Amino acid sequence: MPPIADLVLFAIALAAAGVVSGLLAGIFGIGGGAILVPVFYQVFGYLDVPDAVRMHLSIGTSIAIIVPTSIRSYTSHRKRGAVDTALLKSWIVALPLGAVLASVIAAVISSVGLRLVFVAIALLVALRMLFNRESWRVGDTLPTGLANQIAGVVIGTLSGLMGIGGGVLNNTYMTSFGRPIHQAVATSSGVGVLISIPGIIGYVWAGWGAAGLPPGSTGFINWIAVALIVPIALVVTPWGVKLAHSMSKRQLEVGFGVFLLLVSLRFLVSIYG
């Protein structure tokens, strides 16, 4: 067991992560999972959580934190009238279904496999954001019908496997079809709500009875980490919303791209370093 002083230091680090995740939830419409998952991975490793379940626990705990931060971000963005509620309503089944599929996959996939999924998706999105060109647009209107439902399931599944609230993928999806980045960010906060709530249930089920989980865990969710971060993130999220609405489209894209690139490189080091 680590010394008390070290545990206090990590508690402070988690609190700082709560500030960052709250800002990210507001600025990018994401639940902050892209920063929390790497932080949790390091902290749980120091606490001697076995590698076989460490990434799973990091993702599940991140999903749990996304619920309140996404709701907070969504209500703030909705007050500004920026949310595409029609798109959210069309995904009311597709996104939760994808989140459930993610938990089923998480129950059987390895830790390295989960990290590689995280890195691959984050790198692709980062490159698109950093080198975005108008000619990269897929279309001028969002798909409807079956294509729209498939997109919802895919976004829900991949986001659940990354421990994120869907903002990373939904921002890319909506902007690829000509939607403004600010509308995509606002709508992504609602996407996070639809993914994270069933995601909690799924990761509890997937990790039920798993060996090596630290105290305060239910399945692949550690409630001590959740309790430390959520209050801070809820206070900070509205600040991020204000920042998002004061930044230009290109500033949001570059900031988002650089952030994802750094996170991807950190995970590659954890796998091959």
TrEMBL record:
Topology in the lipid bilayer: Multi-pass membrane protein
Keywords from the UniProt entry: Cell membrane, Membrane, Transmembrane, Transmembrane helix
Annotated Gene Ontology cellular component terms: plasma membrane
Transmembrane intervals: 7-35, 55-74, 86-106, 112-131, 184-208, 220-241, 253-272
Pfam families the UniProt entry points to: TauE
Tree of life domain: Bacteria
Coiled-coil region(s): none
InterPro entries with a match to the protein in the record: TM_pro_TauE-like
Localisation: Cell membrane; Membrane
Stated family: Belongs to the 4-toluene sulfonate uptake permease (TSUP) (TC 2.A.102) family.
PANTHER family the record matches: MEMBRANE TRANSPORTER PROTEIN HI_0806-RELATED
Name of the protein in its database record: Probable membrane transporter protein
Organism listed in the record: Shinella zoogloeoides (Crabtreella saccharophila)
